[in-house]
């Protein structure tokens, strides 16, 4: 399950002590004085003011820094252009914290080379090597100070907001609200050692991110040890079959097993192997039948390098999410599109989970966030003109009674003021999406395509969560069948939960409203955030890494920008 971060106070204290104890005590200062000069010799004024023009000129000549020019200038302006990283002409311990964080960027799925770690060290050595009397020492101090500030923004921006901006990158669909961190304020809090700042340390903002980061370490270890061998054999292998491929399967899925390759009993696809395959199928969103078939072969033979890439891509998506997923931090609904799953979260814990049906590739469910405002019980299905032109038009050409057979009607407009219109008013051969001037809707009833309730968060995509009469689809492994909306496995449960604090709305009342003959709107006592997101890798409650197929090629689009 994907869920938010729970802070570990003890771990944070250990990290703080490691990163912030005076380096003079530990002897590990990466910016240690290499000149042999004592502190008195460094008589450069630490309250020196850096000119705005100096900042502009320096950063404009540095490709890695210049896109942070505005932010750097704002940061120095707010501190009256005083040096940020020096005290008594010596670098403060926070500089070591920054350099340590940047040095470990690879474990965050980022490249430390991007953040110029080597150059910062060399800049300090060059500064420290000059005597205080050298006229160039002050300039090197200013350059190092600005370079450290720009390096912080360079790294912190990627760490907290993502290395790719999903809102401006072409081909990446992600309109979820962002983390609104003000990096200039965050840096000032670090320099002033305000431990109560949420960004005082480079801590991940979400537990889901931390879990993927830990998984990345394991999968990179597998890669360093040569990865895994391909599992190849007969097209289908099932319980009690004997095949040589079972040996490779045991090695892959049961590595702890002591196996004698000369013993033919290890070639038998027994209950232990079947259970291991079943578990693998569950972790990869496959049809769970315990049979080694084409889909399972395909998933087994995805190279470890590809799985590593998948982990890094999804860590990046976690960086795109706001620090507080719910506005008040209490409850929200999360729809993970490639997993075909809905999670209901409250106070950091999952209290409900259900299967979902999402949009097919040509009608993909959009990735965005909003707030559920009201429910519509026994709803009309107001059919988009695109569906009228593409799907209903051919039906009506063959049978003018088709609308009535589907409990549908043609009306002047959607809503309570709608008036029925005879179907013979329309030329069903020349009709197009643009010239159709009426509306078609499906009346409430057991076969209504929206089922018995829909969960509304009005948005530009006309997407919402709803019930469905096609319950059989929830037994499918791949559930991309809709026109973009999200169909729910347990709509009554979700409706009851959302209305639990509304007087008079218990489960019995909900069921009655769902089976009424008239449409009814019910406003929620408070709006509930909903996130429609796209994660193809995550770590579940049992600590197992889950992988899913790249349903809409969003991984592919992101990889082109990130790698």
What labels would you give this structure?
alpha+beta, 14% strand, 36% helix, Transpep_catalytic_dom, 563 residues, globular, 16 strands, 18 helices, carboxypeptidase activity, 3-stranded antiparallel sheet
Return the structural class: alpha+beta
Low-pLDDT runs of 5+ residues are: 6-28, 33-44
Mean pLDDT: 88
What is the percent of helical residues?
25-40%
Say how many strands there are: 16
**Nearest-angstrom radius of gyration?**
30 Å
**Number of H/I helices:** 18
List the strand order in the largest sheet: 3-4-5-13-11-10-6-14
Strand content: 5-15%
Distance between the termini: 27 Å
Major beta-sheet overview? 8 strands, mixed, barrel
Quick one: overall form? globular
Task: Please describe what this structure looks like.
This protein has 563 residues and is α+β, with helices and mostly antiparallel strands. It has helices at 9-20, 23-26, 52-60, 69-78, 93-103, 117-129, 137-161, 183-191, 207-224, 245-253, 271-283, 294-300, 304-320, 385-398, 402-405, 491-498, 507-514, 554-562; strands spanning 86-87, 90-91, 331-336, 341-346, 349-359, 368-377, 381-383, 408-411, 439-442, 453-456, 465-466, 480-482, 486-488, 520-533, 537-539, 545-547. The strands form 4 sheets. An 8-stranded mixed beta barrel has the order 3-4-5-13-11-10-6-14. α3 (52-60) packs antiparallel against α4, α4 packs across α8 and α10 (245-253) packs across α11. The radius of gyration is 30 Å and the shape is globular. The model is unreliable at 6-28 and 33-44 (pLDDT under 50). Residues 331-514 form the L,D-TPase catalytic domain. Keywords: Cell shape, Cell wall biogenesis/degradation, Peptidoglycan synthesis, Signal, Transferase. It holds the Pfam family PG_binding_1.
């Amino acid at each position: 399950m994907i869920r938010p971060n729970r802070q570990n106070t003890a771990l944070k204290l250990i990290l703080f002590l490691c990163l912030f104890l005076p380096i003079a005590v530990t002897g590990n200062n990466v910016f240690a004085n290499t000149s042999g000069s004592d502190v008195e010799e460094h008589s450069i004024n630490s309250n020196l003011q850096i000119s705005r023009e100096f900042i502009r000129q320096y950063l404009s000549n540095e490709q890695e820094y210049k896109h942070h020019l505005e932010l750097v200038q704002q940061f120095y302006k707010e501190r009256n252009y005083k040096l940020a990283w020096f005290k008594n002409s010596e670098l403060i311990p926070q500089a070591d914290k920054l350099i340590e964080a940047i040095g470990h960027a690879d474990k965050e799925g980022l490249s430390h080379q991007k953040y110029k770690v080597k150059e910062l060290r060399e800049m300090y050595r060059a500064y420290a090597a000059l005597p205080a009397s050298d006229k160039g020492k002050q300039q090197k101090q200013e350059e190092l100070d600005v370079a450290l500030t720009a390096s912080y923004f360079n790294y912190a921006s990627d760490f907290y907001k993502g290395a790719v901006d999903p809102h401006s990158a072409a081909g990446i669909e992600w309109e979820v609200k962002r983390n609104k961190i003000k990096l200039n304020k965050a840096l000032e809090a670090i320099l002033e050692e305000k431990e109560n700042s949420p960004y005082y340390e480079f801590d991940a903002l979400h537990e889901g991110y931390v879990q993927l980061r830990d998984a990345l370490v394991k999968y990179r270890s597998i890669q360093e040890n040569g990865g895994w061998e391909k599992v190849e054999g007969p097209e289908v292998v099932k319980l009690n079959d004997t095949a040589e491929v079972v040996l490779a399967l045991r090695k892959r899925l049961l590595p702890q097993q002591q196996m004698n390759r000369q013993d033919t009993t290890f070639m038998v696809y027994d209950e232990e192997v079947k259970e291991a395959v079943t578990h693998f199928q569950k972790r990869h969103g496959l049809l769970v039948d315990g049979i080694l078939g084409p889909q399972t072969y395909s998933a087994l033979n995805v190279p470890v390098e590809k799985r590593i890439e998948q982990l890094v891509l999804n860590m990046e998506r976690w960086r795109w999410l706001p620090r507080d997923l719910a506005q008040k931090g209490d409850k929200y609904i999360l729809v993970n599109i490639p997993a075909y799953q809905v999670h209901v979260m409250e106070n950091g814990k999952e209290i409900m989970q259900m299967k979902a049906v999402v949009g097919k590739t040509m009608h993909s469910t959009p990735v965005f966030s909003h707030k559920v405002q009201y429910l519509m019980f026994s709803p009309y299905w107001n059919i988009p003109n695109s569906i009228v032109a593409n799907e209903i038009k051919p039906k009506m050409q063959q049978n003018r009674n088709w609308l009535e057979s589907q409990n549908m009607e043609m009306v002047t407009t959607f809503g309570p003021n709608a008036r029925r219109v005879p179907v013979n008013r329309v030329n069903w051969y020349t009709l197009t999406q643009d010239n159709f001037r009426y509306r078609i809707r499906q009346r409430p009833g057991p076969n209504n395509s929206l089922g018995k309730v829909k969960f509304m968060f009005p948005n530009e995509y006309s997407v919402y969560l709803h019930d469905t009469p096609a319950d059989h689809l929830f037994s499918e492994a791949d559930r991309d069948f809709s026109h973009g909306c999200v169909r729910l496995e347990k709509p009554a449960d979700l409706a009851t939960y959302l209305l639990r604090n509304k007087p008079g709305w218990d489960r019995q009342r909900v069921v009655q409203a769902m089976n009424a003959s008239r449409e009814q709107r019910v406003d929620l006592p408070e709006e509930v955030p909903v996130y429609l997101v796209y994660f193809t890798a995550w770590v579940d409650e049992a600590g197992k890494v889950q992988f899913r197929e790249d349903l809409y090629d969003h991984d592919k689009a992101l990889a082109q920008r990130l790698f």
